[in-house]
Specification:
By secondary structure, the chain is an alpha+beta fold. The chain has a domain of 90 residues. It is built from two helices and seven strands.
Length: 146
């Protein structure tokens, strides 16, 4: 007489044993779990990196320039998470000669401050005002040093 194991019990046993291992395989939100962003080949300002796929929010943006000065206040929105966007700017700004000065996180909004020559740049990264899940808002302000 042969004994067989009920297929239902085998499946349940396998599920119980493998569940903890499978739970660790789900995508993680945060700096380690997200794919890196790439810089757009056509940013709105050539010395201000923009993640690929992010778009300018016209109604919330302005800029002007003269021979000696410029002012840029651009708002961008795109699909990513705040941690990955913060890492993007940490890596990309020095590539266009911006030097990091400070960084903060207050209530889930990241602020990165850079300087270059006679200009300051403040980048604020937070959840998109549209409230759409998985969307990030970037406000980038360049002003003359004052």
């Amino acid at each position: 007489m042969r004994r067989t194991i009920d297929g239902g019990w085998v499946g349940l046993t396998v599920l119980i044993v493998l569940f903890p291992a499978l739970a660790g395989c789900t995508p993680r939100i945060g700096p380690e779990g997200q794919a890196r962003l790439t810089a757009s080949s056509n940013p709105y300002e050539p010395d201000l990196p923009l993640p690929e796929g992010f778009r300018l929010v016209d109604r919330a943006s302005e800029d002007w320039a003269s021979a000696a000065l410029r002012y840029v206040r651009h708002q961008y929105e795109g699909r990513s998470d705040k941690y990955t966007v913060r890492q993007f700017y940490r890596e990309q700004m020095p590539l266009v000669r911006w030097v990091g000065r400070s960084e903060s996180n207050v209530l889930g909004r990241y602020t990165l401050t850079f300087e270059r020559g006679k200009e300051d740049c403040v980048i604020t990264i937070g959840d998109a005002a549209s409230g759409r899940r998985g969307r990030v808002e970037v406000v980038l302000v360049v002003t003359p040093k004052g």
